[in-house]
Amino acid sequence: MPLIELRQIFKTYFLGGGAVRVDALQGIDLTIERGEYIAVMGPSGSGKSTLLNILGCLDQSTSGQYILDGRDISQLDDDALSDIRCRKLGFVFQSYNLIPELSILENIEVPLYYQRKSERASRKKAVELAELVGLTDRIHHKPAELSGGQQQRVAIARALVNDALIILADEPTGNLDSATTEEILQILDRLHQYGKTLINVTHDDEVAVRARRIIRMRDGRIERDESS
Question: What's 61-84 look like in SS3?
Fold first, then answer.
């Protein structure tokens, strides 16, 4: 059974009080197996971020079916989608989205707050993941005290803390220099080797070639689906 199956996914937005119609996705059919490493590419306005938002249950399609881990989640309400995000999905964003008032360790723990994990179990898991991404000596610092690359490592650790089935990344190296980009990509490579399913939206061909499959989008459709 595929981990993800999209069947004829359409997404339409109405802007300007309904005066302007935008067909962001137009009949997307997509199957993703467990453990795949996928890059999603395309020009601005191609629909790649909209696709990621739907895959990540941050938005819902206008029509079509989204089957995740054997369950049709297309018509679920916001509470049910929030529960799926909490239990099955991890997110890494270009802007890191860390909470500035919290320590690095506390930022990593955030998804576990919603799962009502014990404080001891949450702390143990967060420390293990801080070690995995090479930040053991920074766990009591605040985000502002870290470099951009270190903050992105925190975001990756946070994405992993709930044992997510899928890691969804939106331009995760977009704000980083080339050396730091390579460090982050090496971490993503390791996660793929560990069996994680990775979906990475990027505009950078050098980032995309790290994936095993590249989905190229244009005008809300999948233009090409390539294995690398």
Answer: CCEEEEEECCEECCCCCHHHHHHH
For tokens 């249950």, the residue is 57
User: Mean pLDDT across the chain, nearest whole number?
Assistant: 92
Q: What is the tens place of the pLDDT at every residue in 180-226?
A: 999 999 999 999 999 999 999 999 998 999 999 999 999 999 999 99
Q: Is the pLDDT at 228 greater than 70, yes or no? A: no
Candidates 37, 138, 162, 156; CA nearest to 97 is: 156
Q: How many residues does the chain have?
A: 228
Average pLDDT over every residue of 61-78: 94
Cβ count near 181 (within 10 Å):
19
47-67 pLDDT per residue, tens: 999 999 999 999 999 999 999
DSSP string of 149-184, one letter each residue: HHHHHHHHHHHHTT--SEEEEESTTTTS-HHHHHHH
**Contact by Cβ (8 Å): 169, 97:** no
- Distance between CA atoms of residues 186 and 207, nearest Å: 11
Domains of the chain: 33-63+76-227 (3.40.50.300)
Work out the angle at residue 26's Cα, subtended by the Cα atoms of residues 23 and 32, and round it to the nearest 5 degrees: 130
